[in-house]
Amino acid sequence: MRIVDPQSAVLSNIEVLAYLTANPPRRPPNPPPNSRHWVPSPDLRDHNTVVKEIHNYVSRLSPHLQSYPQYTHIPLAELEAQAQAQANYHNNSNSNNKDTAASAPPTLLPPKLLNKPTPVDHALRDLVTRLQPYGLTKGEVLMIVNLGIGLIPAAAAEEGEGEEGEEYEEEVVEEEEEGGEGEAGQQLEEMEVDDGATNGGQDAENGGAGSGELAEEDYGAMALLDTVIEEREERLSEADVAGILTIIRETLGGGAAAAAR
């Protein structure tokens, strides 16, 4: 990623994280021996603090950004190792050890590769293109990307449904054990009738969901979209919201699949 005009650029949180990760701050040189009140030149201590706080914010408050498609050209661990090797080389070059200073600096990524789009760049471009028919503003799309709307709540809802299903099955087993054999036979007949009605209802629901209705676990995401999209109820229907959430999950929720493109 290359920022053309830093003064007017509007970047999402994932783009800021990608840029700072690909361009780590330089560590200040070691102070000379027997020096007091020494100030490095250039003084990058405040800049390094800001970069550190941004990484802390992502890891503590916005961990969903790390599940987005890969935002670096090489694996993050390898990139961090290269940055650490570069910092160690500069620190050793400032020391009086001539043998260490004579060693060659570690090879970093060439500028041509740094300007090459990453998988998350392709995902963001695809997201913006596919959301255009819904008439969202730049600020609304930016907030959707920053908050990861529709990604984490859906996963949490699936886990909750799994736990509720297990509890329900345990209760049914306990009731069957307490009942007599005659009651068990009667319950089986009733369950067969109920299963037929339930299957018919599920088929109708599946047909309705296929027509663009909002899934039950997506109502939390829709409530969050109501705070992001101005006058959402007048501009977008539930079918539109379902389409938006599908696009978000297919582009930003791809993770490793998107990175392999």
From TrEMBL:
InterPro entries: RPC9. One of its GO terms (biological process) is transcription initiation at RNA polymerase III promoter. Residues 158-181 have a biased composition (Acidic residues). One of its GO terms (cellular component) is RNA polymerase III complex. Residues 90-118 have a biased composition (Low complexity). Residues 22-43, 90-119, 157-215 are annotated as: Disordered. Residues 25-34 have a biased composition (Pro residues). This is DNA-directed RNA polymerase III subunit RPC9.
